[in-house]
Amino acid sequence: MALSFDPQELPVLGIDDHLPAVGEEQLQPDALRRRFLAPPTWTPEIAVERRFTTREPTHASVLVPLVQRDAVTVLLTQRTDHLNDHPGQISFPGGRAEPEDADAIATALRETEEEIGLHARHIDVLGSLPTYTTGTGFIVTPVVALIEPPFTIAPDPFEVAEVFEVPLSFLMAPANHRRHGVEVNGVRREFLSMPWQSGEEQTKRYFIWGATAAMLRNFYRFLVA
């Protein structure tokens, strides 16, 4: 679904640098595992977007892949520009549930293998976050997992333009969380972005926003609760 606005051109209304970052020790694989084994009492900050479609709600799952490098990273994809839903946007691997899927985790694992070729043998599921409902009608379950290198990927060129990694510490620092707002058809829409620049000269820019940024923000709230 094409957007009627360019999110990258909207002004920044605020930056949440007044909130604490998640400590490095909390971002280690063992600490993340313990967090899911004994989760805190918490409430997602963002659970439902304003709907801008009349189609029936559809269940889906995404994998939040935490790659166990020297410092943990989050593996993300950039969707191809011709897709009907969220074209060109930064996403987690995943997709809609199918009748044969046993549960939300099964959906996330199947979709991840289909989308980027990452086999389940490399995926150690830690747990799930509460569902996030997108404006396009998807009720998404984020499934958080550790990914053990080395692994290979084979992105589906129809769906995936690029696969890349961002340090988890960057995404879990609210100083990198920006707030935006826009009015579409008389309805106010607010969202977060977490722009990431990579490369030695930091010339490659990835604009992480919308549902992906919101689910990362909920992950942040889960870790700091």
The name of the CATH architecture is Alpha-Beta Complex
Radius of gyration over alpha carbons?
17 Å
The main β sheet shows up as: 8 strands, mixed
Number of strands: 13
Beta-strand residue fraction = 25-35%
What is the helix fraction of residues, given as a range? 10-25%
Overall pLDDT level: 92
What are the defining features of this structure?
globular; 13 strands; 4 helices; Nucleoside Triphosphate Pyrophosphohydrolase; eight-stranded mixed β-sheet; alpha+beta; 225 residues; three-stranded antiparallel β-sheet
Describe this structure in words.
By secondary structure, the chain is α+β, with helices and mostly antiparallel strands. It has a single domain, classed as Alpha-Beta Complex (Nucleoside Triphosphate Pyrophosphohydrolase). 18% of the residues lie in helices and 31% in strands. Strands 2, 3, 4, 5, 6, 7, 8 and 9 form an eight-stranded mixed sheet that branches. A hairpin with a 5-residue loop joins strand 2 (58-67) and strand 3 (73-79). The model has no long low-confidence stretch (mean pLDDT 92).
Summarize, please.
Helices cover 18% and strands 31% of the residues.
Question: Would you spell out the secondary-structure blueprint of this structure?
Answer:
Layout: E1 14-15, H1 29-37, E2 58-67, E3 73-79, E4 90-91, E5 94-96, H2 104-116, E6 123-128, E7 132-133, E8 138-147, E9 160-167, H3 168-171, E10 178-184, E11 187-193, E12 196-198, E13 204-206, H4 210-224
Parallel strand pairs: 2-8
Antiparallel strand pairs: 1-10, 2-3, 2-5, 3-4, 3-9, 6-8, 7-8, 10-11, 12-13
